[in-house]
Amino acid sequence: MRPACVVIGATTLAIAVVFAPINTSSERLNNQDKVIYQPTGSEGRLAGKISFEGQPPQPKKIDGSADPACEANDRELYTEDIIVKAGKLANVFVYVESGDALNWYSFEAPTTDVSVAHNGCQLTPHVLGMRLQQTLKIANDDSTSHNSHLIPKSNPDWNQSQPQGAEPLAHKFTAPELFIPLKCNQHPWEKALVSVLDHPFFAVSRLNGAYSISGLPPGQYTVVARHERFGEQRSEVSVGVKETKTLDFSFKAPDK
Fold it and tell me: Measured at the alpha carbon of residue 247, what is the angle toward residues 243 and 248, in degrees to the nearest 5?
């Protein structure tokens, strides 16, 4: 709930704070009452970069010697929870949390699957997003057995063994949820984070910190940038007709 305000020149006077329940029936429709959005050509785009201020914590080397197949990999294993290159932060999940289009519309989901793989004894990609209606495919590309264990809060727990050479596992979620941990019980350093949304307006920052969210209907939105170690930031943004709005975020390590 927001305080009622009067703006006089450059001065804002807060008159009252009214704590009243939001009328969800008038401000936001239930999912079953929403109309499927049909693109009009007026959609805009959000684009930006995620920066990191200061000296980032360094990745830690992982000892994979417990499994000879992991130790035999050509690449060395390092933690992937913090990846900073040239002052830019990767693996930040950027998504539209609320706003005009989400209040009134539902959005058709793609029929394609979303893939993650045990590759080189790491889960790749480390951070990914998908739609609620999509199927998550988990592949084992390694010459060793893995275990794929999803540990959600709003969805059922899911845990499957995956021998070498097995077909990819398939899983669907029953509810939207952010940052669902995916891990391998046999190789505890293997970790990924899966976010499941009921709309298409999300992205993951790349190694250069860049992200892009397209197809956004004109309107006012709250956008969140979330990192597994550095928390989240919010920004209010207005997207105009066919507008590309630049929205950057900056993170830093918390004070010790």
Answer: 155
